[in-house]
Each structure stands twice: as structure tokens, then as C-alpha cells.
């Protein structure tokens, strides 16, 4: 029965209970943290493994919008189209930097915090691991029987055998066996017993640390390498040449912060032809494209021109750049003459495909040479057919019955007001439609080789036939174009190397067991009995530890019997 005590004397009666205990008389007060204390607290929170995992999860979540919303760095045309399709939502997303996710302030903040957190986690653990590698295995516990995986056997020695010498010999044999099995060993003899302590599995922690270092390497490679990367897009029409120069030939160019656009290697690429096969008419997969091959002539400065090919998912490597085939289509050649017959416009214009049958939309702009500026909205049908509603469409993507349909607009094209204009869009605001629609004048329709008069006596427009001499069909009457993406990523090999290192390190951390083993020999009081103890302790999950202790006991017992001296030729191990 406990003795009664008053509240006033509680602290003196029970001195082991602190004053700030839940039923203590004093009030709980926390120490005030100064600036250094708050900085230390913040650093410990940031460098905790829990928060590192939270930041890694946040980084993965933050990257999701980059795969949903088009990015300026990879798809600038897609961003422009998004603004056109979503005029209300797009400015809001732009303010949130969702079109530049991977260079946004909020993504960079998570990225940098994760980087600092990983460094704070790894450096102390590396120091501790290096210290552990130099340290000896821990001393043998006084009571091995308290360990879960423990085995014990008695050895009956022959009369007159020195039990201490036999115990030392038994431990020496165990030390050799453990060392040959990859353990680090240390002898701990004394207090009437002989023992060896062994430890292995340091590669588990090494793998764990290498995994985190590999993650840091990936972050560094992506962060620094991204500054030296660039991506550009260019449409190349057949028989034209692209020069790797920002000032002249790129349609769009997105450099990293460390890229000097004036220092690009000025190699050239000329599109000789574009080969594509389509499933024949009447087949189950009519019009489906087969193999795409862009045949190019490439040339590096000071070197001979070489023939190259680009296929889908098979980019061209040139001067450290990778050139990808992103799209293709037709580029009708248009010639416009004024009323005097003088050529005022002549070009092969890339028409953007609108469907799988390559019904294509193109914009023709004639700013000079006529009485007024003309803009033309044109549709190209590789194989013109009429649909059920009587409208024109393309029934097949190959050139079987190519027709060009043109609606003509006159007025200011807006090229001189300082506002950039897309070559793939025509702003008809303030312009007068001259053909098609409700004008009462039919749209101009041209087959390859045809010429038609422009309205109001402005001149003529021709759809040039590009077929070689002696051609009997339209299969080569229209030039092709390819859309290429030129990409340089110096970080790619480094990211791959660190990713491979991370996988290998993770395998080490998962499958290498970390364990400690002990063998202890204790002479009996009578001097004729020797007690052998075997024990193991897992550092983490190790379901095979019990079997390892059993195997050690069996192997050691057999070796001890075989190594017995002549005067103790048959020690019995029970």
C-alpha cells in the first residue's frame, strides 16, 4: 500500500518524477529559439529522410502538368494552338507558368529543395559509413543466449586436454571460416571465454548511399545539362536546304541558359526526297501509312556531303545533335503573276495535314507586286472526292487526283505593323473575300499544271507540276515536306549512367543482407567439456539468418573435429 502524500511534498517524496510531468505542479515551458536555433531546426527538418521523400513526391506531382499542357520548350506550335483554342484559360495557365513547367519558379524551388535535402541526408550518412568501415566488429555480447538465433553445443574433450587451448583453437577455426565467407572478424578473449565477432553486409549501406548519390547525380545532370541543351524546329521542303543557324533557318528555337546561339555548328541538311508507302485502295487498312523515310544530304563544315536517312524513332546524329522526324505532308508549288505576266510570287508552301487522308490546309500570302495585297486560304486534296454532303475531301493520302482549292482575300495582311504573324494562319479581319463563300464567285480549283485568273484582273495563279519529264501520272507532281526537331542534350549520357548506377545500387541495398555473427568457446569447470555457442543478429530484414547460423554451427563443428590433435582425436560435439 502506498503512503499518502500531500501535493506540496510530492516532488520531495518522489524525486524520480520530473516537475514537468503531466501531473506535476510546474507549468510546461519550451525554450525560446534564437535565429541560430531556428536555422538549425529548419535545416534538420529539410534534411530529414521523411521530408526528402515528400519533396520527391511533390516533384513527381509537379511534373504532371508538363505532360498535359503543351510546353514552349518542346512544342511551341502546340502552345500557340492552345491559346487559339482556349483564349480565356490559356492566359491564366501562362501566368501560372504551366507552359514552362520545368523552368518555372515553383518547380525550380521544389527541385532545389530536394537537391539540398538529399545532400543533407547523404553527407552525414557517408561520414558514418566510412567510420563504420574502419571500425572493428562489435564486442561479443556477454549472454549470446538472449539473441533470437542462438545455437549451443557441448564438446567432450579427452582426459588431459587443455580446455583453454582447445577453446582458442575452436575460435581460430571459426574466425578463418567467417573470414573466408566475407566477414570482417575480430577476436575478443577474456573473462574465461574465447570468442570471435564477425560482421558483413556493408555493401547494403554502400548501395543505399550510392542510390542517393545517383539521385543527386541525376538532378545535377538534368539541372546543369539542361542549361547546355537546346531544341529547335524546322520544316524542310523537298530540294531545299536547312543551315544550322539560329539567325536564318530555325522556325523556332529554345536554347538553354548557357547556350550561345551564335556558336552552333553550321552543318547543312538538304531534303532530297521523302518515301512513304500506303496500304492499297480496297484493302482493310486502306490509306494506312507504312514506312516513312526522309532522304537527306548532310554536310559538316570542311567535310564531304553524305547521304543520310531519318525514320520515325530512328533519329539522325550529326555534330552532337539528334534530328527527329516529327511530321510530313505536301508542299504545292505556287506561282503568281501580275497583269503584265511578271512573276511576283513563286514558292513551295508546306500545307498542314488535317486528317489521315492528308486533306491539307495552306496559307498563301502575296504582299508585293500586285495592285493590292492578297491572302489565300487553300485546301489541298491528294485524291479529291466528294463526300455525302457534296463537299470536297481527300479519299486517299497518295497523289491519285490532286486538286488545289483556293479562296482569295484582298486587303492589309498586317505584315508591316510590327506584330509577328504565323505563316500558317491568315487573319481575314478587315480583308475582302473575292472568291468562295458568299461572294458569288466559285473558289479557284487547280490541278497540277493548271493556271487560273485572279479576280478583278489582278493577274494569274498557277499550280506547278513538279513531275519529272516523261511522267505518266501525278505521283511526283507535288513536293513533300518534313517537319524536323533538332535536339541537343549533353546531359543524356550522364543521366543514363546515374540511372544505371541507381538501379544497381538499389539491388545491392535490397538483396545484400547485413548481419553479425559470433562464435564463443567457454571451457567447463571440470576442464573436460567445452561449450560452443553460435549466434547471429540481423541488421534489418534477414529471413535467412537462422539457416546461416545452423550452417555455421555444422561447418564449424565438423572442422573442429577434423582439426583435433592426436591426443584428442575424437572429441564429441553434441
The major β-sheet equals: 6 strands, antiparallel
- What is the arithmetic mean of pLDDT? 87
Low-confidence stretches: 1-12
Q: Strand order across the biggest sheet?
A: 2-3-25-26-1-27
- Amino-to-carboxy terminus distance: 51 Å
Percentage of residues in DSSP E strands = 25-35%
Extended strand count: 27
The best one-word shape is elongated
Describe the SSE topology.
Layout: H1 10-13, H2 35-46, H3 49-62, H4 64-68, H5 76-85, H6 89-95, H7 105-134, E1 149-156, H8 163-180, E2 184-187, E3 194-200, H9 202-227, E4 230-237, E5 241-243, E6 252-255, E7 268-278, E8 289-299, E9 306-310, E10 316-318, E11 321-331, E12 333-338, E13 343-348, E14 352-353, E15 360-366, E16 374-381, E17 384-386, E18 392-394, E19 403-410, E20 432-433, E21 444-446, E22 451-453, E23 459-463, E24 479-488, H10 492-511, E25 515-523, E26 529-538, H11 545-562, E27 572-573
Antiparallel strand pairs: 1-26, 1-27, 2-3, 3-25, 4-6, 4-24, 5-7, 7-8, 8-9, 10-11, 11-24, 12-13, 12-23, 14-15, 15-16, 16-19, 17-18, 19-20, 19-21, 22-23, 25-26
Helix pairs in contact: 3-7, 7-9, 8-11, 9-10
Main attributes of the structure:
elongated; disordered N terminus; 29% helix; 27 strands; 574 residues
Amino acid at each position: 500500500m502506498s503512503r499518502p502524500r500531500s501535493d506540496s511534498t510530492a516532488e520531495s517524496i518522489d524525486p524520480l518524477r520530473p516537475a514537468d510531468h503531466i501531473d506535476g505542479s510546474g507549468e510546461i515551458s519550451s525554450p525560446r529559439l534564437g535565429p541560430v536555433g531556428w536555422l538549425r531546426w529548419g535545416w534538420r527538418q529539410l534534411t530529414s529522410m521523411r521530408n526528402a521523400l515528400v519533396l520527391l513526391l511533390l516533384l513527381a506531382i509537379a511534373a504532371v502538368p508538363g505532360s498535359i499542357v503543351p510546353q514552349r520548350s518542346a512544342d511551341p506550335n502546340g502552345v500557340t494552338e492552345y491559346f487559339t483554342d482556349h483564349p480565356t484559360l490559356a492566359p491564366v495557365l501562362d501566368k501560372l507558368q504551366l507552359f514552362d513547367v520545368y523552368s518555372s519558379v515553383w518547380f525550380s524551388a521544389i527541385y532545389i529543395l530536394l537537391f539540398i535535402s538529399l545532400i543533407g541526408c547523404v553527407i552525414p550518412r557517408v561520414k558514418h559509413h566510412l567510420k563504420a568501415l574502419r571500425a572493428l566488429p562489435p564486442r561479443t555480447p556477454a549472454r549470446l543466449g538472449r539473441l533470437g538465433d542462438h545455437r549451443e553445443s557441448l564438446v567432450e574433450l579427452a582426459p588431459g586436454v587443455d580446455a583453454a587451448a582447445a577453446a582458442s583453437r575452436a575460435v581460430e577455426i571459426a574466425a578463418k571460416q567467417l573470414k573466408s565467407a566475407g566477414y570482417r572478424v575480430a577476436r575478443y578473449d577474456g573473462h574465461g571465454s574465447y570468442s570471435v565477432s564477425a560482421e558483413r553486409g556493408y555493401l547494403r549501406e554502400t548501395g543505399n548511399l550510392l542510390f542517393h548519390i545517383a539521385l543527386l547525380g541525376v538532378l545535377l545532370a538534368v539541372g546543369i545539362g539542361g542549361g547546355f541543351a537546346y531544341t529547335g524546329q524546322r520544316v524542310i521542303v523537298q530540294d531545299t536546304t536547312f543551315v544550322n543557324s539560329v539567325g536564318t533557318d530555325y522556325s523556332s528555337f529554345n536554347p538553354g541558359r548557357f547556350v550561345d546561339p551564335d556558336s552552333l555548328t553550321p552543318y547543312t541538311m538538304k531534303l532530297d526526297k521523302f518515301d512513304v508507302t500506303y496500304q492499297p485502295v480496297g484493302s482493310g487498312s486502306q490509306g494506312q501509312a507504312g514506312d516513312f523515310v526522309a532522304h537527306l544530304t548532310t554536310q559538316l563544315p570542311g567535310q564531304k556531303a553524305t547521304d543520310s536517312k531519318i525514320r520515325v524513332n530512328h533519329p539522325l546524329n550529326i555534330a552532337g545533335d539528334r534530328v527527329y522526324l516529327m511530321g510530313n505532308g505536301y508542299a504545292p508549288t505556287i506561282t503568281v503573276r501580275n497583269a503584265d505576266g511578271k512573276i511576283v510570287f513563286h514558292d513551295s508552301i508546306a500545307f498542314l495535314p488535317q486528317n489521315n487522308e492528308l486533306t491539307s490546309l495552306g496559307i498563301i500570302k502575296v504582299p508585293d507586286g500586285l495592285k493590292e495585297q492578297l491572302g489565300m486560304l487553300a485546301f489541298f486534296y491528294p485524291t479529291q472526292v466528294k463526300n455525302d454532303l457534296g463537299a470536297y475531301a481527300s479519299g486517299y493520302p497518295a497523289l491519285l487526283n490532286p486538286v488545289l482549292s483556293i479562296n482569295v482575300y484582298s486587303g492589309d495582311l498586317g505584315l508591316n505593323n510590327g506584330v509577328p504573324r504565323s505563316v500558317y494562319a491568315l487573319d481575314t479581319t478587315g480583308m475582302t473575300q473575292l472568291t468562295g463563300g458568299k461572294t458569288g464567285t466559285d473558289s479557284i480549283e487547280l490541278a497540277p499544271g493548271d493556271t487560273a485568273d485572279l479576280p478583278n484582273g489582278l493577274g494569274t495563279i498557277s499550280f506547278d507540276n513538279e513531275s519529272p519529264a516523261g511522267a505518266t501520272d501525278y505521283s511526283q507532281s507535288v513536293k513533300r515536306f518534313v517537319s524536323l526537331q533538332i535536339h541537343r542534350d549533353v546531359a543524356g549520357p550522364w543521366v543514363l549512367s546515374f540511372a544505371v548506377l541507381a538501379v544497381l545500387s538499389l539491388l545491392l541495398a535490397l538483396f545484400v543482407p547485413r548481419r553479425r555473427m559470433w562464435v564463443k568457446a567457454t571451457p567447463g569447470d571440470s576442464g573436460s567439456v567445452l561449450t560452443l555457442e553460435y549466434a547471429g543478429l540481423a541488421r534489418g530484414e534477414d529471413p535467412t539468418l537462422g539457416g546461416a547460423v545452423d550452417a555455421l554451427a555444422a561447418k564449424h563443428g565438423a572442422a573442429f573435429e577434423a582439426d583435433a590433435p592426436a591426443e584428442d582425436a575424437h572429441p564429441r560435439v553434441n
